[in-house]
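Reviewer 2 asked us to include a model.

Predict the structure of this chain.
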Amino acid sequence: MNSNNPTLTALHFTRFLAAFCVVAYHYGKAAFPFNHGLLNTLIQNGGFAVSYFFALSGFIMMYAYHQSISKLNAKEFWIARIARIYPVYFLSFILVLFTMLMLNGSKPKGISIILQGLCLQAWKPGISMEINYVSWSLAVELLFYFIFPFIFNYWQNKSLTTILFQSIGLWCISLVFHYFMIEHLSAPERFNVGQFIAFFPPWHMNSFILGAAAAVLYIKKLKHAVHIKFFSHTLIVGSLILLYFFFIEQPIPMGFLTNGGIIPVFLILIVGLSLHDGFIAKLFSLKPLVWLGEISYGFYLWQFFVFLFFEKFILLRGQNFNTAQFYIYILTLICFSALSYHLFELPLRKYIKLKFLKN
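Predicted model (structure tokens):
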């Protein structure tokens, strides 16, 4: 993401916030201030931040490319995206696998090792959460990267009405199908079916495509509308109220909000932040926060690797982080993510692009 773009800068830091929500959901439920009250309830639903990633990916990709080109070269796009995600993905996979073998004697199945090495683990129910379990979402993102050039080029000749109709229609059909699976296929003893419903990549395409459609709507109708910016606060606050309502006031069972059910609320927030040019935009544009957004991919991907060492040398097995331990863990994770970003991720990304791309 280009952090110099004022539209995208407001969204940059939210990637770190979403990653932090996921990390706190996994490891911070017993730490202050997430161990009681409203924040505890919100963090109990922190896993939904992964869905925010999916919608944000669609919005950012469509916005970034729609502004600069009229036809997307699929091969060049795929190389650029692989250069962006795969090197640090594969490094984290290798280090997590080695650490699990050395520190806690885990013996992952061969098929798990092969599929996770290829970033395909979410396609086989039952192993989606093995080894570096948080990386299942990258297998989903890989599908998004594959389909995006086709969606982008197909939508170039379509009207905004057609784009919105198609994306909303897909979202509605997906929710109906998801509801059917939850009601008729899901059961606690059917573990593989549960993973199929929760993690199978095609079920999340509606989130990505709806995010991309929201970007087209933003570009064509909202971005240059004179008075719409005055409603940015309403959109931001409204999305937060809806999140409060869905998760706290009238909590909906988690299964019915996954796979796209909560995405419209996230898109209201994303559009609101994109339109906003006041205090929040200025705050999120501060260089330290933009930098946290830049390392957020590693912050998300390295969380389990860093945790393995804390679990071995600081925690008793099964024990939760206390407040001090959690924030030491967060600081360690930020430092490790920063080193990964500057010493490995960026140099290798530049090398791959120079090696395989013309420009």
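Residues 30 and 320 are 6 Å apart (CA to CA). The two ends are 18 Å apart (CA to CA). We have added this to the supplementary material.
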